[in-house]
Amino acid sequence: MVSKIDIPDLHLINTVDTDKLNLECGAEYVHKKKKIPINLKEKFEELGVKNGVICLTFDGDADRIIYYEPLFKEGRVEIIDGDMILTLFTMAFFKICQSIEDQKAICLKSAPLMNYLSLRKWTFAICQTAYANSASKQFL
């Protein structure tokens, strides 16, 4: 049996007034201004959420998405950019594969599949171009 993967809570804010679509809350606003979206602090207080939570925001037509950590005391956000997202995805993928490897002995009926997915046959690498964000290298 593969380990349970926790699914985070999802809370929607700034969804009511479509006349003010993306006003002080869309992905472009958060990314360019490095500011916390309007109403987020109030929603955190209402839910009893503390700092250290990763949030995401997208524009009204959902063609851009930004992951970030709100830093309320400083009044700004820490952006989690594409390089970091791909690194986190790779780390999560590795963890899932490791979980499959850990369960290999239990899954006798799928032994050929487990042998195929075995980490002993996998190599994980992250390749970056010269255009990659230098902060992603530090994150690694």
Walkthrough of the structure:
By secondary structure, this protein is α+β, with helices and mostly antiparallel strands. It has two domains: 18-80, no CATH class; 82-139. 35% of the residues lie in helices and 11% in strands. The chain is built from five helices and three strands; from the N terminus they run H-H-E-E-E-H-H-H. The protein has helices spanning 27-33, 40-47, 82-102, 111-117, 134-139; strands spanning 55-58, 65-71, 76-80. Strands 1-2-3 form a three-stranded antiparallel β-sheet. Strand 1 (55-58) and strand 2 form a beta hairpin. The longest helix is centred in the middle third of the chain and has 21 residues, at 82-102. It is globular. It starts with 26 loop residues before the first helix and ends with a helix. 9% of the residues are buried. The mean pLDDT is 75.
Short overview:
The protein is an alpha+beta fold and 140 residues long. The chain has 5 helices and 3 strands. Helices cover 35% and strands 11% of the residues.
List keywords for this structure.
3-stranded antiparallel β-sheet, 140 residues, 2 domains, alpha+beta
Total discrete domains: 2
| Rounded radius of gyration (Å) | 19 Å
Strand order of the largest sheet: 1-2-3
Residue share in β-strands = 5-15%
Q: Residue ranges: pLDDT <50 for 5 or more in a row?
A: none
E-strand count: 3
Silhouette: globular
